[in-house]
Amino acid sequence: MVASRAGLVMDPGSKVTYNGVQIGRVAAISEITRDGKPAAKFTLDVYPKYLKLIPENVNADIKATTVFGGKYVSLTTPKDAAGNVIAKGHLTPQTVIDATSVTTEINTLFQTLTSISEKVDPVKLNLTLSAAAQSLAGLGERFGQSIVNGNAILDDINPQMPQARRDIQQLAALGDTYANAAPDLFDFLNSSVITSRTINQQQKDLDQALLSAAGFGNTGADIFARGGPYLARGAADLVPSAELLDTYSPELYCTLRNFHDVEPKAATFLGGNGYSLNDHAELLSGLALMLNPVSAVSILGSGLLTQGLLAPLGLVGVVGGAPNPYMYPENLPRVNAHGGPGGAPGCWQHITHDFWPAPNLVMDTGNSLAPYNHLDTGSPYAIEYVWGRQVGDNTINP
Length: 398
Hints:
It comes from Mycobacterium lacus. InterPro entries: Mce, Mce/MlaD, Mce_C, MlaD_Phospholipid_Transporter. One of its GO terms (cellular component) is extracellular region. By secondary structure, this protein is of the alpha/beta class. Among the domains are: 2-109, no CATH class; 322-398, no CATH class. The protein is built from 11 helices and 7 strands. A 7-stranded mixed beta sheet has the order 1-4-3-2-6-5-7.
């Protein structure tokens, strides 16, 4: 260990401690020259088992046990301002430690006072002390109170010193940040000068724009003041619709997805190629079936109309009429469907070969999946388009 001086009452054999625990003794003390100045070299005899526990950047001080007692070497673990350990590495027999401080001694204090006294003129010192005594005459109580107040201020400041030290340390990082950003800051200032000149040149236009904005604001305030209740009511009326759309948003997604998936297939038979259309049409009539049983093949006939085969059979269906029409309110559907995959609104997964047949969700909508099997004539008849329905119910609602 190297120190600026060894101090009084520091002898070989003095103890060496680490965080208050004795780990060895001072083996020898010698005088050396370091950087052209005299210094003291200490050879420390430390137990080897403690070397790996002591960090390389350990703090070393020469302290005294009492005011007039012997001195010893005190090693402590280094910490930052927040009290966190910042140790690195460990000591080896070849490590050189620099002592950070040596306890102040009486002879050092007297030497310092003597050197100061030699440079002070006694006459000037007497005049200074006399002037100070006259200025403080009669102010002893106030001066004492000032000392008390200063002590109270220091009591408040002392707990904040760790934070103050941390803030001062952060000033270096702040300075580096501003130094790195200095070119951009100067560019910003130069641009600000140009912008300021432009604004100054367009001052009249800017004033007119501000006045127009103020007038527009007044007009808009009047409009919103009058229409505010209607806007609030409109927003309130949108809440149920928004909640409904939110509830059925999975089904909306399903619908759009299915339209996207079916569009290429629909384009193949709905004229998507621009020159052809695949179509299937049939004309059926219950009355035609009774009048001419051969009309039962109208389905086949409708597929062969383009070839001119069985065309008369396909046309026979127009004699009786068309399927039963939709009648209001008898044929109104039941708005009673609910549920989906897992009981929530949504759509099934994409239909593939492994997922066939697709699941069918049974819902109470008034539309039966079972065929309507009974013997009856089709309605309306062709004559009903002229004279209306003459016999029977207006419609058939299974």
